[in-house]
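Question (not urgent): is this output format expected?
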Amino acid sequence: MDRKPAAAIFLLIPLCAAILFSSCRVLPISPVEATRSVLRARIGRTGFDGPVYCRDVRLCGSDVLPAFYRARDFRPAWIDEALALTEARSFLAALDLVSEDGLDPKNCHLDAIESLLSEIQAALGKRHRKARPEALVDLEMLLTDAFLLCGSQLVHGQVDPETFQSEWFIKGRIEDLAAALEKGLADKDIPGALDLLRPNHAVYRGLMKAFRTTRIAAAVNNFEKFLELWKSADPGLPEVEDAKGRLKALQ
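Got this back:
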């Protein structure tokens, strides 16, 4: 009896099983689709009543965010497939500069955003290189709210969240702020989109220049006082050398 056909069939069984398994297994969901799915679940397709919270942080654009994401069919604005988060980092750099407008970047969720970025970066550095979808959505929502809030403050000014908490919300024509964000994302120029929201008249630019000059003068004075107190310190002390370098850069 010829055993070759039987042996061949026996060898084909594991191969067929492997092919069948590979065709039936569920492929891992991409970061964008994972974020989109959680966003859809959080926001929903119907209206939302009341303030929106994210990681115990109140989102000031509670009336804007749901409509913004529904218009995008819940497609993330900041999360990309490679999780490079280029636009997010570009926005944070621009957000830091609004201190020159007399605004406090920390009032725009800065600490929470930086904490999430660190968490996601740490997760990507681990063996499975996978960030939690919930963390991605938290970052997504906070970044969008931060842009809308910062844009509103550039246009209308900033209130103190401690004393005006009940009225601390996005003011102005919200569709303009959302459109500014969409344009910045499309042009890959979030800092430029934020800059376009600044008042474009000479008085405001003059105030910005005067504010910057005052801040520099105050910083120079502080460094000079520090160096005067430490003038007898051992040469090369890191703190003293750092102060000297910063003072030189300001002068």
